[in-house]
Design brief:
Blueprint (H helix, E strand, L loop, with lengths): L8 E2 L4 E2 L6 E2 L3 E3 L4 H13 L4 E4 L14 E4 L6 E5 L4 E5 L4 H10 L2 E2 L11 H6 L16 E7 L5 E5 L4 H7 L8 E8 L1 E2 L2 E10 H6 L1 H7 L2 E6 L5 E10 L14 H25 L4 H10 L4 E6 H5 L7 E9 L3 H11 L11 E6 L14 E9 L5 H12 L4 E2 L9 H7 L3 H11 L8 H7 L1
Parallel strand pairs: 4-6, 5-6
Antiparallel strand pairs: 1-4, 2-3, 7-8, 8-12, 9-13, 10-11, 10-12, 14-16, 14-17, 15-16, 15-19, 18-20, 18-21, 19-20
The structure holds flavin-adenine dinucleotide (FAD).
């Protein structure tokens, strides 16, 4: 979604997410520029009897942010407000995009310890759905949070952390926007670091056989696998110690090569293949095998966020589940069996990542060393049968859906998957008894 930029105004302006899988027509849009204005907008919504939702960048595939009530556009509520370069504690306004945050942190000699694939999300939007990157010793973005400032349903502002209102903190770090509007986030950042990126095609069987060893041996390990192809693209990103001898490591990728690799090959060329596949679906398995066979090796170094993040210009739909690490082999084997039998072919690769267990109530990695399996389909191609089959496979191993990616689970099933589900609902009932921050998506997932 293009981030909205209007002042408070009435009128039938439509909200649409990036993937085009959700739309809404808010009764009112507000663009607060201060915490007092966020509080006032929430109070006004209550007086008018309307629900209210904070908007991020619209990069959730689910209708998590959708509202027919008051839409809070936080694109005017950005920037770092406090930073301690000694401790790494940094407080930022919730509408700051990860891209802007990374740039500001870089200027301070700091960085986020881990990031996902893209950087256009807002900080609060990314946290609220449990956005994660990869790394067996690292958790999702929410594990990097030290404190949150929230505007609650009555318009009051509260701060929560491990020592102050710890239950609210355990719930609100991945809170789906259900508990209040996050006004500011205090992150524990790390000194800026350089990553050595190594990407190479490897037979998928080999990656699966060595999965645990690869997860253990690399700071950030993931792989992509085109489901008709034999090869996976194995990606390993490892931190270079400060002052690593320049001669011993591959160089930073020159600008022209970055453009060629990321914009031309991964976006323009791949986008062309996808369009051909959409026009002639019978060609898709062959195009998919071609993409798999065309994978090539590359190795380079760069600042962490320039390695973690890549442009994603080809539109797609996605579902992603966190499964117990030990179940990954079963899930991939079942997917391999299922994909050739689907009524419609699959154009996009499967992505597999890892994360450490954490203690955040609705984190997909709550108390579980996790493997993330993400499936995608090119926008405009049929995907329902694929996603349904995937859900039935991950259901066998107690898979937990990413809150921002397509899934069909409701409260009953989610309650069985999250040991602290009822506690989350209790905290929600305490801080938002009238479900002021509710919407149909929350009604489905929380009952
Ligand atoms: C191309 C693409 C790549 C992606 N890559 C990854 C990835 O690598 N890893 C991963 O885990 N996910 C990934 N995602 C998913 C994405 O990170 C999440 O869906 C994320 O929530 C999107 O952030 P957003 O700012 O767009 O928030 P939105 O989608 O706009 O909102 C998400 C939720 O946050 C709530 N919210 C927003 N701001 C506030 C606030 N201030 N206070 C309270 N609640 C708030 C909204 O109400 C909504 O419930 C990707 C998505 C896309 C489209």
């Amino acid at each position: 979604m293009e981030r909205t930029a209007s002042t408070a105004a009435a009128g039938p302006r439509v909200w649409r997410n990036w993937a085009g899988t959700a739309t809404a027509t808010p009764a009112r849009w507000c663009r607060p520029g201060s915490q007092a204005e966020i509080s006032a907008a929430v109070k006004d919504a209550a007086s008018a009897g309307r629900p209210v939702r904070a908007l991020g960048s619209g990069h959730s595939f689910t209708a998590a942010a959708a509202t027919s009530g008051v839409a809070l556009d936080l694109s005017g509520w950005t920037g770092i407000t406090a930073a301690d370069t000694r401790t790494g504690l940094v407080t930022a306004r919730s509408g700051t995009t990860l891209r802007a945050l990374n740039a500001e942190l870089g200027g301070l000699g700091l960085a986020m310890a881990n990031l996902g694939d893209i950087d256009v999300q807002t900080l609060a939007g990314a946290l609220s759905t449990g956005t994660h990157g990869t790394g067996a010793r690292l958790g999702g973005l929410a594990t990097q949070v030290e404190a949150l400032e929230l505007v609650l349903a009555d318009g009051s502002a509260v701060t929560c952390s491990a020592s102050s209102r710890p239950e609210l903190f355990a719930a609100a770090r991945v809170g789906l926007g259900a508990l209040g509007v996050i006004a500011t986030v205090t992150l524990r950042c790390v000194p800026s670091f350089t990553l050595l990126a190594d990407e190479r095609p490897v037979p998928v069987e080999e990656v699966l056989e060595q999965f645990d060893a690869l997860a253990a041996a690399n700071d950030h390990f993931e792989f992509y696998w085109f489901p008709y192809g034999r090869k996976a693209l194995l990606k390993r990103n490892n931190r270079l110690p400060p002052g690593a001898a320049a001669a011993a490591v591959p160089p930073v990728m020159p600008r022209w090569r970055r453009f060629w690799e990321f914009e031309v090959m991964e976006n323009a060329a791949f986008g062309t293949l996808c369009r051909i596949g959409r026009a002639k679906p019978q060609l898709i398995p062959g195009l998919n095998r071609f993409s798999s066979a065309a994978l090539s090796a590359r190795s380079y170094t760069d600042l962490s966020h320039r390695v973690f993040v890549t442009p994603r210009r080809v539109r797609f739909v996605e579902s992603e589940y966190a499964v117990p690490r030990e179940s990954l082999g079963h899930v991939i084997a079942e997917l391999r069996r299922a994909v050739p039998r689907l009524p419609d072919p699959v154009m996009f690769p499967v992505e597999v990542r890892v994360a450490a267990a954490d203690d955040i109530w609705l984190s997909t990695a709550y108390q579980r060393e996790s493997a993330y399996v993400a499936i995608h389909q090119y926008a405009g191609l049929p995907y329902q049968a694929y996603f349904d089959r995937f859900e039935s496979i991950v259901a066998e191993v107690a898979g937990r859906p990413h809150w921002g990616k397509l899934h069909s689970l409701g409260a009953e099933r989610l309650r069985a998957l999250y040991p602290r589900f009822d506690e989350f609902r209790r905290v929600r009932a305490e801080v938002d008894p009238e479900a002021r921050f509710g919407n149909p998506y929350l009604a489905r997932v929380f009952g």
